[in-house]
Write a structure and sequence with these properties.
The complex is a heterodimer of chains A (about 375) and B (about 325).
Chain A lengths: L1 H15 L2 H12 L9 H13 L4 E4 L5 E5 L9 E6 L13 E2 L3 E3 L3 H21 L7 E6 L9 H9 L6 E8 L4 E2 L1 E2 L1 E10 L14 H14 L8 E10 L9 E10 L2 H22 L2 E10 L2 E2 L5 H12 L12 H7 L4 E7 L1 E2 L7 E3 L1 H19 L6
Parallel strand pairs in A: 3-6, 3-7, 7-15
Antiparallel strand pairs in A: 1-2, 2-6, 4-5, 5-17, 8-15, 9-14, 10-12, 10-13, 11-12, 16-17
Helix pairs in contact in A: 1-10, 2-3, 2-4, 3-4, 6-7, 8-10
Chain B lengths: L3 H5 L1 E3 L6 H10 L4 E7 L6 H15 L5 E6 L6 H7 L3 E4 L13 H11 L4 E4 L10 H12 L5 E7 L2 E3 L3 E3 L5 H14 L14 E4 H4 L4 E2 L4 H13 L4 E8 L2 E2 L3 H21 L12 E8 L2 E8 L4 E2 L6 H6 L7
Parallel strand pairs in B: 1-11, 2-3, 2-5, 3-4, 6-11, 7-12
Antiparallel strand pairs in B: 5-9, 6-9, 7-8, 10-15, 13-14
Helix pairs in contact in B: 2-6, 7-10, 9-10
The chains are: A alpha+beta (about 375), B alpha/beta (about 325).
Chain lengths: ~375, ~325
């Protein structure tokens, strides 16, 4: 491990030498629209870039996740995964052309997650310039249907159907450089759909308003007493509804997430919210549906797990201050399958989920060096203890 | 008019996707290739063009030998950004400083002949937001693969950016359809086969470019096409489908000014060729009117029909490239 730590600072400058290749990968991939469930073009683009950089094998799995493989020197060591999600929040008709400046790239989805995918595509070239050979095979996987309603389907399928053990994994996210996730909360992502027109046979004295019904539900959720231990919360994240200013809203939808470090608490809170919804539906005679979009179980590595400890050391060597919060991402699927994994951010930026999202170019080289360092640490065996 | 040219000399960029083959042809023919990007306040797009061309056509495949930016005196950070990504950057006014200084795209392209070293020169506009290396390699392709083609020109769909973040799938090319195509139909019907005569992306052999004059401004594409056609015929020209180029939408007034310059260049050329005799001198001013606070105010745009002579006639160039006297 000491050997890796010594080399790390020199990696940053070495990676800078292929700046144009990395930026080109980010731009070509990021400019290809990839809303969840419509990732085909970005999949194609990533595979073209992987082939171009000379991976040993490039294919898709049965779920159409694109995968590049760099053969290791040992056929006895299980593979190491580097994974990033391909889908974005932006629709196809948004102008996806990026603007590159001296130290920044601006455009929709650049941080979440064009830079992640661009860096993944550049890793074969990065290994080449750093003259690194791994013992394990390195599996470079872009996973589809990850965010929102995608519900991490791509990574779930990839790991479910992967036939050999996996040695360890690094999940790559565009931002923020310095993040180190090694735990995931239990989570339930839900929608409450209120549709006034569905109860047409009911004669209302006063016509109910779908938005106000959801307002009642929100009020009751806010009144719930959530424990501090296990740490739990309900995030009201999305709301939509109505047709125009002067008409009573006939439909409305509320999106929320229950998060807790206890899976049992997630279930309890969900049950309570279900009761609230049933109660209001009964009292107002309005059709209300509570739908679960996705669920995740809580899982974590210990802080003193060698992967976490070594990742912290790698980050500190590169003058990064690790910031750790629970994360709901590909990481949770690895951890739930008992595969040691961490999530790392590549660079710094701003306006994360806006069309003018902006990433900084210079910090990216440190972000890449840290990813390489952690992959090397896994290859040296930090995940091998049972 | 024979329609053969359209079939024989029209290519699709996918014909040249095997860049390794182009590199091999370049090596066999012992040629060097320069990419020139003329700029004026292009800080939003210049970096992406340089980065992609450098990565794909210099690092991965050694097709280009140099990337040169010739700048008209940008007031933004164009030159600094271009330099930071490794392009050779020049201010047009500092090239051949003994000559009178003019500003315009044509001036930059002309001066690029003096600065660049390549046997083949690729000219690309610097404002292409969806830049891809196909814009360069597909224009180079016919020049390397065939022996008779000396000049290639791009054509494409032209989605235009409307508002901040939306695209309209078709549009643009209004000056082509309303000005150039009717004029070509009147005087040079063969040239109507060139689908986008005003496209700002073209490539050719130095031997061709150095022997033709360059208008200073917008008229350069029109005059270049007419001069090459007149001197060497249509068969040395090819066009390549680049499929999609996203560009900024220009308002009608700006297009009017562009049309004015192109018309002036065109009439000048057809008169020199003896096809028509213009009895009255053409004026240098384009007059447009705007409604400003209930009054119509004129907006006068002056453009002199300035033109640089063939570069080969410039002694400094002659000396630099040690050309045998062509006269």
């Amino acid at each position: 491990m000491e050997e890796i730590i010594k080399k790390l600072p020199s990696f940053v400058n070495a990676v800078k030498k292929i700046k144009e290749t990395i930026i080109t990968n980010i731009v070509f991939i990021g400019q290809t629209p990839s809303p969840t469930f419509q990732e085909q073009h970005r999949t194609q683009q990533l595979m073209e870039r992987l082939v171009e950089t000379g991976v040993d094998e490039c294919t898709t799995d049965g779920y159409q996740n694109p995968i590049g493989l760099i053969r290791g020197t040992s056929d006895k060591k299980p593979p190491i995964f580097a994974v990033t999600h391909l889908d974005t929040f932006f629709e196809k008709d948004i102008d996806h052309n990026f603007m590159v400046k001296k130290n920044s790239i601006t455009g929709p989805g650049i941080l979440d997650n064009a830079v992640g995918v661009g860096v993944l595509a550049s890793l074969p070239e990065v290994f080449r310039i750093l003259d690194i050979r791994f013992e394990s095979d390195i599996v470079l996987a872009g996973v589809i249907q990850s965010i929102g309603k995608g519900n991490l389907r791509g990574i779930r399928h990839l790991l479910k159907t992967w036939e050999t053990p996996v040695r360890g994994a690094v999940c790559i996210e565009g931002g923020e450089l310095g993040r180190l996730n090694y735990a995931t909360d239990g989570m339930k992502r839900c929608e409450i759909i209120c549709d006034i027109m569905k109860g047409r046979d009911v004669v209302h004295k006063f016509k109910p308003n779908a938005i106000l019904i959801l307002h009642q539900i929100i009020e009751q959720i806010l009144k719930m007493r959530l424990p501090q231990k296990p740490r739990s919360r309900v995030i009201i994240g999305k709301i939509s509804g109505g047709y125009k200013h002067g008409l009573i809203a006939c439909d409305a939808t509320l999106g929320f997430e229950i998060q807790s470090d206890s899976d049992r608490m997630v279930k309890t809170i969900f049950k309570d919210i279900n009761d609230i919804v049933d109660g209001i539906s009964h009292e107002t005679q309005v059709d209300l549906k509570l739908k679960t979009i996705s669920t995740l179980s809580s899982s974590r590595l210990r802080y003193n797990h060698p992967l976490v400890k070594n990742t912290v050391e790698i980050m500190k060597t590169l003058n990064l201050k690790p910031v750790s919060t629970p994360s709901e991402s590909e990481l949770s699927i690895f951890l739930s399958r008992k595969i040691p994994a961490v999530t790392l951010g590549v660079t710094k930026g701003e306006n994360y989920h806006l069309v003018n999202a902006k990433m900084e170019i210079d910090p990216m080289f440190t972000g890449i060096a840290q990813i390489v360092g952690v992959l090397m640490a896994i290859d040296k065996g930090v995940c091998d203890e049972r | 008019m024979s329609g053969n040219w359209l079939i024989k000399n029209t290519f699709h960029y996918s014909n040249f996707m095997n860049i390794g083959r182009l590199v091999e042809e370049k090596r066999k023919k012992n040629l060097s290739i320069s990419l020139c990007l003329p700029t004026l306040n292009e800080e939003k797009t210049i970096a992406k063009e340089i980065v992609i061309m450098k990565s794909e056509l210099m690092t991965h495949y050694p097709l280009l030998d140099e990337i040169v930016v010739i700048d008209s005196g940008s007031s933004d950070n164009t030159r600094e950004i271009a330099r930071s990504y490794g392009a050779d950057v020049y201010k047009a006014s500092e090239i051949l400083p003994d000559l009178e200084d003019f500003k315009g795209k044509g001036e930059n392209l002309w001066k690029a002949l003096y600065i660049t070293k390549g046997d083949i020169i690729v000219y690309l506009d610097a404002d292409i937001t969806n830049i891809h290396h196909r814009f360069a390699y597909s224009l180079i392709g016919p020049l390397l693969i065939t022996d008779h083609i000396k000049y290639t020109k791009a054509f494409y769909d032209r989605p235009i950016a409307i508002g901040k973040n939306k695209m309209r799938p078709t549009g643009g090319g209004r000056v082509t359809e309303l000005v150039i195509r009717p004029l070509f139909s009147l005087y040079f019907p063969e040239l109507t086969q060139i689908l986008q005569p005003l496209s700002g992306e073209y490539a050719g052999f130095r031997d061709i470019f150095e022997k033709i004059p360059f208008p200073i401004g917008y008229g350069v594409e029109t005059s270049m096409l007419l001069d090459i056609y007149e001197k060497w015929g249509l068969d040395v020209i090819a066009q390549v489908d680049l499929e999609k180029r996203v560009h900024r939408n220009q308002d009608t007034q700006s297009l009017g000014k562009m049309a004015f310059v192109i018309l002036k260049t065109f009439w000048d050329r057809v008169e020199k060729l003896g096809l028509i005799k213009i009895k009255k001198q053409m004026l240098d001013t384009m007059i447009q009117y705007n409604l400003v606070e209930n009054d119509y105010k004129s907006d006068i745009y002056t453009i002199k029909g300035l033109e640089r002579p063939p570069m080969i006639d410039v002694p400094a160039y002659h000396e630099k490239f040690k050309k045998a006297d062509h006269k």
